[in-house]
Hints:
The structure is a homodimer. The first copy, chain A, contains 21 helices and 18 strands. Chain A has helices at residues 3-13, 28-33, 48-62, 72-78, 80-89, 115-120, 132-147, 160-164, 184-195, 211-224, 253-259, 304-315, 341-348, 366-370, 389-399, 411-414, 420-426, 442-450, 458-462, 473-479, 490-502, and strands at 18-21, 41-44, 67-71, 93-99, 125-128, 153-159, 200-204, 227-230, 237-239, 247-248, 265-269, 293-298, 353-358, 376-379, 405-410, 431-436, 484-487, 507-511. Chain A has a seven-stranded mixed β-sheet with strand order 9-14-13-15-16-18-17, sandwiched between helices. Chain A has a six-stranded parallel β-sheet with strand order 2-1-3-4-6-5, sandwiched between helices. In chain A, strands 10-8-7-11-12 form a five-stranded parallel β-sheet. The first copy, chain A, is globular, with a radius of gyration of 23 Å.
Amino acid sequence: xxxxxxxxxxxxxxxxxxxxxxxxxxxxxxxxxxxxxxxxxxxxxxxxxxxxxxxxxxxxxxxxxxxxxxxxxxxxxxxxxxxxxxxxxxxxxxxxxxxxxxxxxxxxxxxxxxxxxxxxxxxxxxxxxxxxxxxxxxxxxxxxxxxxxxxxxxxxxxxxxxxxxxxxxxxxxxxxxxxxxxxxxxxxxxxxxxxxxxxxxxxxxxxxxxxxxxxxxxxxxxxxxxxxxxxxxxxxxxxxxxxxxxxxxxxxxxxxxxxxxxxxxxxxxxxxxxxxxxxxxxxxxxxxxxxxxxxxxxxxxxxxxxxxxxxxxxxxxxxxxxxxxxxxxxxxxxxxxxxxxxxxxxxxxxxxxxxxxxxxxxxxxxxxxxxxxxxxxxxxxxxxxxxxxxxxxxxxxxxxxxxxxxxxxxxxxxxxxxxxxxxxxxxxxxxxxxxxxxxxxxxxxxxxxxxxxxxxxxxxxxxxxxxxxxxxxxxxxxxxxxxxxxxxxxxxxxxxxxxxxxxxxxxxxxxxxxxxx
Amino acid sequence: xxxxxxxxxxxxxxxxxxxxxxxxxxxxxxxxxxxxxxxxxxxxxxxxxxxxxxxxxxxxxxxxxxxxxxxxxxxxxxxxxxxxxxxxxxxxxxxxxxxxxxxxxxxxxxxxxxxxxxxxxxxxxxxxxxxxxxxxxxxxxxxxxxxxxxxxxxxxxxxxxxxxxxxxxxxxxxxxxxxxxxxxxxxxxxxxxxxxxxxxxxxxxxxxxxxxxxxxxxxxxxxxxxxxxxxxxxxxxxxxxxxxxxxxxxxxxxxxxxxxxxxxxxxxxxxxxxxxxxxxxxxxxxxxxxxxxxxxxxxxxxxxxxxxxxxxxxxxxxxxxxxxxxxxxxxxxxxxxxxxxxxxxxxxxxxxxxxxxxxxxxxxxxxxxxxxxxxxxxxxxxxxxxxxxxxxxxxxxxxxxxxxxxxxxxxxxxxxxxxxxxxxxxxxxxxxxxxxxxxxxxxxxxxxxxxxxxxxxxxxxxxxxxxxxxxxxxxxxxxxxxxxxxxxxxxxxxxxxxxxxxxxxxxxxxxxxxxxx
Lengths: 517, 517
């Protein structure tokens, strides 16, 4: 058994049985070894941002990591932005980065580069496998490290000769570090805060955005009057009819200031106190209202759902959660607008949908339109590095082949990782992509004003304009093997969305939605 | 004057007047400042790999750096692979990477990441601008550092508040470090080697791949019998009728062994001794023939053209260079093959063309077919990170608007940075892209055999297969605003290639060329 075979065997035994791959020469033994371990599924991406974003989406839904297969430092570099998003989501990911043979490195061949430096920038776990006999143990350690609470990026650097050498030994799974139990004293002290009667915001993140924790938070809110909020960009938010409807904290500092107006205590559960996404001249970075106290119920590496349930038992013993009623918007008619397209989605969203949300400014009104839709998951842009929606949708669809995946994608974000469409076609994934096509980096037009750069002239505005030439997403999608249509009215969007959901395989709808601003 | 304005003013004064840009919120003041410095041209790329590859292609042709504008660590990450290629080409590039405001960093906002670590992996120059008053001086230092012989990647990290703050002071250009003069003793000792009459290979790289040095090398070869070779992946190779025709060292170790068979001395000029691109089980990494001696005429940071001329004066005083005669292949007919498509290019290549060559396996026979074509430049994949051809062609066309740019692009490499086509359309660049469409990662099929992974089964082969679904490059190009056609015969390719060259603006030809292997 060679090193590559022992690696794949170990990954599969540890529950990692999907490998999103963009290999090169130094990974050819890994590729060859795929056929020796039938349980491992290799999924090809035509660019590394597709591969890493798909691993993120996969793990958010599957609850366990996928592997990626990347070609030396440049391959890791190309995948870095979506690994950044995965890091911010605390998604477990196991990168396998091929490298030159150990004895070849000193020759500084053209593809030689500092892989450790790039991998290290992810603040996760990095190891270089030095010998074939150790690859199995290194792989088991990588899978465990990725899953150590709350989840991280683990990068295993695999020299080509370590991969092709004989003497590989598969290794049994290593248990990851489980979330820590929140001390009872902490829960009691938060209960005291809630009993003061002073205005409290309960900020939920990470695992607190899933049903069990949301129900507990809803009970606490109902009993104490605390206002619950979900963090601005949750990794995976469970919502819809039958689940508590919890408002998300806004993207803009002004929104958050409004949402937290008058709050005296911010109780944080599974996330951190709110900060501004960007800095703006003369505006605060820290979004905790002045004079308010912060109380941490559970940190990122703690068992937040259990802590919330204990807290609910203390302060809301017999109070049930408030659950969203089933309610859908009317199907709108007429030309598409930033206001009406969300109603089409809300009216037609199927049961059990997974929404990969990179609609950005176009999606501002989406939460309201879908709050009473059937139960669904929302996967958001956790790290702010755009180009994440299509890959995340791809990975989510691999993880949940029986669930409809809907990728709401702004045109400005779509081009970074557009080859994800090809992988959707090749794997026949049930992904419906709706491109919100406003022909601009609309969010940057807004930001240009918000940062106080009022003097913007034609050159500046030109850099935020995606027309001239217009991108034709229908042709691009068709070129990658994904059937596509264009919608300019709400009726067309509804008809095309229905059809896309009814037919198996991927579809793309180019929705001509004017800018909201 | 704010920091951004002082930065752009300084760049322009130092000769950097093109900025390939993919900005975000933290770069909005830089974007706004573009209108205050009319000489600076901002060119939008829809993905960072386009931006960094275009900066590489631009500088290879313009002979001076472009700037890039990138959005924090993830933007730099997305651009890293083509910066790796630029690093290997010793291309001067000035990255401006926006970052959070200095006071915002401690909040670890979603886009916070370790920019220095990623930039540092490029072994170039990295500086963070700490105050608005220093931005001008920092920018001047960056431009100089990028141009210090032999050229490198300079990365200036620009916090948002340093950019928007008042008190910017433009700085006069700082002279870069010129190439060092090669000592006369070194030149004389190489002359002695050449006079031994023993078999000598003269390996040319970097600046030695331009006309002046090539003429000197040709004289030396003619007078002494030394065999001249150009390094495998030159940054910019001048060739064609009227210039010395110098064979490139092969990509495969076996080719190099054949080329250097019997050589006793390897004289290195502007590059390093030959090494294998990858390691293979049981094969050597060092491609200097056993027993041969290596002599360095000029290192990367030395004035290699002058050294070659001095050497030629010593050993070939009255010997003229041997120049390629004008000669073109006959236009072929019939179905396209890996053998005949290169003859179409050779037959029709226009005077003064710039070839961005990422044809990979499909381009094996290209050098022979174009050796007698009119004078042209070839820009190659210096760092081995695929996805470089389209961006490099884009940048080259910005640098030389009056020259025809021809991008020979393998299908396997095309998808990484395909949004380059949109920039070509927006800027109306005279780029003719010929996609060599064999529907496979053909080079990896070859490598799978070469690394000794004979056991490859259907899963392994599937990961190297780009069919299912077939990519339709005509639709993809049209979707990005580039007119496109498909050629299946040599006649069609010739007709379409002629038309593309005759019409202004970009064109793409999807050439259905079967795999060579």
